[in-house]
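Hi support team,

I've been running sequence recovery on a batch of backbones for a student project. Most finish fine, but this one hangs at about 90% for roughly twenty minutes before it completes. I'm not sure whether the input is malformed or the queue is just slow. I've pasted the structure tokens below so you can try to reproduce it. Let me know if you need the job ID as well.

Thanks,
M.K.
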């Protein structure tokens, strides 16, 4: 790959600030490793555009974005916009239209990084969250709205095709990792239809991966084990909503949501994949240069990995690890680093340059 055509969607709140640092590190790594060339195309999408024009993501925007190699997104959401408008009309529309059926969310605890856990030993797991089905489909509606007889439904859609492809991806990931363990999380004691499908698919696909150890956990139990014994997890495969919830918890136990990266991936590369921090737009701290850009920077590493540039990904991951160590030793010495968003980006970019 000699050049990357990158769609950049800074978005709302702290989005533009963290994306600027992601791009800074991206430039640094391409410079340090002698390429590829990066051409960025910034899209005015999010609250500003919606409030000015009523548009969230037009067909023309989508067509344009489809022609890029990858997407870097900051965050979406603004208190001036009714809940759901940008989430459904922009973020989820991109995930669905670009068939991002894998929502990849790695979680690792770096030594010395503050965590609410008493024993954080060895947290290093990957959540493979399904990205195009489940309760996120927008399948449902409201009848008799505003009356005492209102009925609101959201129907979870799970297809054999959709579950199988994401489960297959999760098994392949598990097989490539040293511990070769896959935990699938659902609630098949209550959600017997969707849970039954997930269960059968995991059993069937699992038969093709005899070297991967499989276990099952109800989602409620998984929230407990993430706190009491997170080191037991290697790869977690789960549906869209369970994965959303578990990955916020995973962010919290590994040092905060400011460190948690994600990739919305179309593994076949039929469409550009989209990389974004898990956190939201945090309007309360927007413009203050206090957001941690690490999650966005780590998302850039996921992007390089997806594009087949493993060395670039590794260089960024190593730099983040060193920066985490610097934070930890400063905190230990009683003088925690006080850095702006851009200070953190500069520090990681400098580490990448070596
Ligand atoms: C996430 C976010 C989104 C989700 C929202 C903003 C639609 O919480 O990426 O985890 O629920 O997937
Ligand atoms: Mn979420």
């Amino acid at each position: 790959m000699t050049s990357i055509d990158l769609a950049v969607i800074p978005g709302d709140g702290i989005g533009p600030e963290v994306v600027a640092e992601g791009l800074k590190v991206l430039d640094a790594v391409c410079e340090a490793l002698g390429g590829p060339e990066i051409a960025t195309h910034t899209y005015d999408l999010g609250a500003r555009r919606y409030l000015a024009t009523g548009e969230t993501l037009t067909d023309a925007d989508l067509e344009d974005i489809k022609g890029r190699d990858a997407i870097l997104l900051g965050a979406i959401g603004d208190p001036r916009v009714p809940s759901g408008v940008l989430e459904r009309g922009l973020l989820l529309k991109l995930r669905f239209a670009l068939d991002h059926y894998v929502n990849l969310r790695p979680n690792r605890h770096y030594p010395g990084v503050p965590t609410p856990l008493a024993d954080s030993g060895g947290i290093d797991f990957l959540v493979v969250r399904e990205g195009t089905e489940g309760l996120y489909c927008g399948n449902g509606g409201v009848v008799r709205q505003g009356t005492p007889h209102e009925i609101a439904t959201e129907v979870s859609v799970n297809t054999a095709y959709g579950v199988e492809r994401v489960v297959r991806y999760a098994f392949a990931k598990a097989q490539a990792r040293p511990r070769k363990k896959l935990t699938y999380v659902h609630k098949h004691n209550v959600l017997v239809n969707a849970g039954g499908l997930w269960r059968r698919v995991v059993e069937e696909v699992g038969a093709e991966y005899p070297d991967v150890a499989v276990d099952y956990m109800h989602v409620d139990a998984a929230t407990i084990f993430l706190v009491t014994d997170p080191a037991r997890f290697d790869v977690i495969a789960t549906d869209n909503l369970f994965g959303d919830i578990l990955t916020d918890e995973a962010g919290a136990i590994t040092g905060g949501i400011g460190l948690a990266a994600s990739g919305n991936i179309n593994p076949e590369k039929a469409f550009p994949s989209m990389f974004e921090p898990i956190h939201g737009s945090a309007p309360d701290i927007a413009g203050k240069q206090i957001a941690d850009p690490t999650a966005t920077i780590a998302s850039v590493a996921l992007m390089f990995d997806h594009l087949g540039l493993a060395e670039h990904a590794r260089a960024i991951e190593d730099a983040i690890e060193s920066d985490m160590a610097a934070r930890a030793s400063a905190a230990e010495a009683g003088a925690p680093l006080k850095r702006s968003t851009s200070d953190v980006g500069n520090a990681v970019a400098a580490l990448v340059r070596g």
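--
Follow-up from support: It reproduced on our side and the slowdown came from queue contention, not your input. The mean pLDDT is 97. No action needed from you.
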